Amino acid sequence: SSGINAEYGVLCNLKPAKMRGIMSHAMVMCASTPEKVEILCPPCGSKPGDKVTVEGFPGTPDQQLNPKKKVFEAIQPDFLVSPEGNALYKGVEWKINGQCVTSPSMRGCGIK
């Protein structure tokens, strides 16, 4: 798909940074291997601004991650896609309004 009018999950509390000459304010979350990258899909009915939750990890997101503290880099290795295609953090499903965030076709890989 072209990405036009598509829905995807983004990490939006990053410090804005220029990427290829364009100011970026978020990171699109993708299932990833060295050979392939695939955008993660929010569940049907999700709306912009819906919060991704992970049971057992409550809390309020930081307004903006401090890049010097390398918070994302510390937690990213625990982001995985399950054999069923669900996004996981430390083995627990990412959910939006009680439904799983998924990878359309990739399984058993990392998320970046």
Describe the SSE topology.
Elements: E1 10-11, E2 17-19, E3 22-24, E4 27-28, E5 30-32, E6 37-39, E7 53-54, H1 71-75, E8 79-81, E9 87-89, E10 92-96, E11 99-100, E12 110-111
Antiparallel strand pairs: 1-4, 2-3, 5-6, 5-12, 7-10, 8-9, 9-10, 10-11
- Order of SSEs: EEEEEEEHEEEEE
Q: Into which percent range does the helicity of residues fall? A: under 10%
Task: Quote the average pLDDT.
Answer: 89
* Shape, per Cα inertia axes: globular
Beta strand %: 25-35%
Largest sheet: 5 strands, antiparallel
Can you put this structure into words, describing what you see?
By secondary structure, this protein is mainly beta. The protein has one helix spanning 71-75, and strands spanning 10-11, 17-19, 22-24, 27-28, 30-32, 37-39, 53-54, 79-81, 87-89, 92-96, 99-100, 110-111. Strands 7, 8, 9, 10 and 11 form a 5-stranded antiparallel sheet that branches. A hairpin with a 2-residue loop joins strand 10 and strand 11. The chain is globular and about 35 Å long. The two termini are 20 Å apart.
